[in-house]
Amino acid sequence: MCGIVGYIGNKQAAPILLGGLEKLEYRGYDSAGIAILDGEKITMEKTKGRLKVLSDKIHGGEDLKGTIGIGHTRWATHGAPSDINSHPHLSRNGRIALVHNGIIENYLQIKALLESEGYTFVSDTDTEVVSHLIDYYYNGNMIDAIIKAIHRIEGSYAFGIISVDHPGELFAVRKSSPLIVGLGNGENYIASDIPAILSHTRDVYFLEDNEIVWIKGADVKVLDVYKHEVKKEVFHVDWDVSAAEKGGYEHFMIKEIMEQPKAIEDTVCPRIQGGNIVLDDIKLTKEQINSLKKIYIIGCGSAYHVGVVGKYVIEKLTRIPVEVELASEFRYRDPIVGKGDLVIIISQSGETADSLAALREAKVRGARVLSVVNVVGSSISRESDDVLYTWAGPEISVATTKAYSTQLQAMYLIALHIGINNGKISEEEKEHYLAEIQTIPSKVGKIIEDVAPLQNYASKKYGSKDIFFLGRGLDYCVALEGSLKLKEISYIHSEAYAAGELKHGPISLIEDGTLVIALATQDSLFEKLLSNIKEVKARGATVFAIAQEGNTEIEKEADFVVYIPKIDNLFAPSLTVVPLQLFSYYVAVNKGCDVDKPRNLAKSVTVE
Ligand code: G6P
């Protein structure tokens, strides 16, 4: 999940690489490095710590001269963050420099082979074997050496490579790790993701597995492993560069929370036309819908939590059984899935390694795969039978907010689409649901209009050691996400429980002053939740509750209440999650945490 970037052109490469890496820091940020090719010499600087440390060390790139280079921002897998383990890695004679995103699974085997050939290693990384391996196979032709090397290695990779033997050239290749080529005017780029190059060009190639990029001067070639040239389609990025900038906010996270009304509207509204759901990109026929036996929803992290909401919603509206599963479990448990089943993969990045592997597993077994993806052209979107894009725009903060919210909308759209087609939703219900879903953007807008009470409450509670989230039904699903958000960015221990489970264990953890966040937006479960609040209060807990407007009875029990606007209970998660995001954000800010780049986490988890 590291970020890689490369430049070849006639400008000084180092400042461009640093600029690109800054946009990729969300992928990992424990060390950074760049290597520049200047004629027949490679100069390199790399260091443990944030990109800023590297940038200061080389005076914003001024110290490294040359117009071709590669850069890397690291999320350590093999070998602790250190100067020596940082990328780029050089071949033994220093003639090749390479950056890598991914994991080389058989690196120990290759290392042993290379050691027996006299190679010595300076780092603990898996990556270093690849720079030596390319050197080992190099016989005057770099493309041949790269092809031989990728045949030998197992795992996932996106590599950027330069060599003193090829002074005007830049090479790259990928498998199961994202890589794009940015096409400029007389200058070209490689990068893990679009924001890294967006200030320079909007025209990109998305690379498929094992496609090799060979850029010589201004000439870009993409080759397959048989060295045949592959004709690539240029994808024009039409979103605004400012979408990936902070735009006056202190953090990306708060900016992205505030963008939710628009993101939800962009995801939902174009898909409601003439009183109907129109999902142009979904080719699933009415017959296929009517013969669906089972639906699986699969994701990781917050995407999995969306799936938990999706299960409740899809089962209710379609009466088709739904199983929701973590991708990392599904892929290895020999699941009973096949023809007649629909597998929905949810992923913001579209590159999460476990989700991609689960997708492949489902396809091999004959299921139809529909993905809900935010990043256009990502691996998961390309390998799915159908894609429903969430139009959240680029999400930079590691902790997801607007992607989660738009993924929720995708669940509603899919449920409505299937339920209308299989006759489980009546005309009257359809009208009601379509009207309700379209109120979500303005209701989220209302919640974010006045953040002061939550900001104030967070400033009193940021010292908490443990925080528990309780809910029933859909509130439980949202509690899972609220708890994850809080622990991710504030490092406060937190757990989410189905409130009915309280007496089966968690109540023993409640003591004087423990903060319990109780979600009570579901009318049919409101009284039950009130009882649970009383139970924790009786054991000394302080309760922060979220309820629907009008349910003021909750004030008798809770110490602090936030109301969400009235909405059909089915859609309440879209509103309930917002105060939870804001609370987590302000707690983390009060604690002085690095909100957008929480420790040990990365946004795009492209390794298992
Ligand atoms: C990481 C991110 C989470 C995200 C999860 C799945 O853990 O920090 O915010 O939910 O990966 O990512 P995906 O891109 O597949 O949605």
How would you describe this structure to a colleague?
This protein is of the alpha/beta class and 608 residues long. It has three domains: 3-238, Glutamine Phosphoribosylpyrophosphate, subunit 1, domain 1; 244-438, Rossmann fold (3-Layer(aba) Sandwich); 449-597, Glucose-6-phosphate isomerase like protein, domain 1 (Rossmann fold), CATH 3.40.50.10490. The protein has 19 helices and 26 strands. The strands form five sheets. Strands 3-2-4-1-10-9-11-14 form an eight-stranded antiparallel β-sheet, with helices on one face. Strand 24, helix 18 (526-538) and strand 25 form a beta-alpha-beta unit. Helix 3 (107-116) crosses helix 4 (128-137), helix 13 (402-421) runs antiparallel to helix 14 and helix 16 (452-461) crosses helix 19 (572-590). The mean pLDDT is 94. It binds 6-O-phosphono-alpha-D-glucopyranose (G6P). 6-O-phosphono-alpha-D-glucopyranose is lined by residues 300-303, 347-349, 352, 355, 398-400, 601, 603-605.
Brief descriptors of the model:
single chain; 608 residues; alpha/beta; Glutamine Phosphoribosylpyrophosphate, subunit 1, domain 1; Rossmann fold; 3 domains; eight-stranded antiparallel beta sheet; six-stranded antiparallel beta sheet; 19 helices; 26 strands; binds 6-O-phosphono-alpha-D-glucopyranose
Can you lay out the helices and strands and say which pair or pack?
Blueprint: E1 3-8, H1 13-24, E2 31-38, E3 41-48, H2 51-57, E4 68-74, E5 89-90, E6 96-104, H3 107-116, H4 128-137, H5 142-152, E7 155-163, E8 169-175, E9 180-183, E10 188-191, E11 203-206, E12 212-216, E13 219-223, E14 235-236, H6 252-258, H7 260-268, E15 272-273, E16 276-277, H8 286-290, E17 294-299, H9 301-318, E18 322-326, H10 327-330, E19 341-347, H11 353-364, E20 368-373, H12 379-383, E21 386-389, H13 402-421, H14 427-437, H15 440-449, H16 452-461, E22 466-471, H17 474-490, E23 493-498, E24 515-520, H18 526-538, E25 542-548, E26 560-564, H19 572-590
Parallel strand pairs: 17-18, 17-19, 19-20, 20-21, 22-23, 22-24, 24-25, 25-26
Antiparallel strand pairs: 1-4, 1-10, 2-3, 2-4, 5-6, 6-7, 7-8, 8-12, 9-10, 9-11, 11-14, 12-13, 15-16
Helix pairs in contact: 3-4, 4-5, 7-13, 7-15, 9-13, 9-17, 13-14, 15-19, 16-19, 17-19
The structure holds 6-O-phosphono-alpha-D-glucopyranose.
6-O-phosphono-alpha-D-glucopyranose (G6P) binds at residues 300-303, 347-349, 352, 355, 398-400, 601, 603-605.
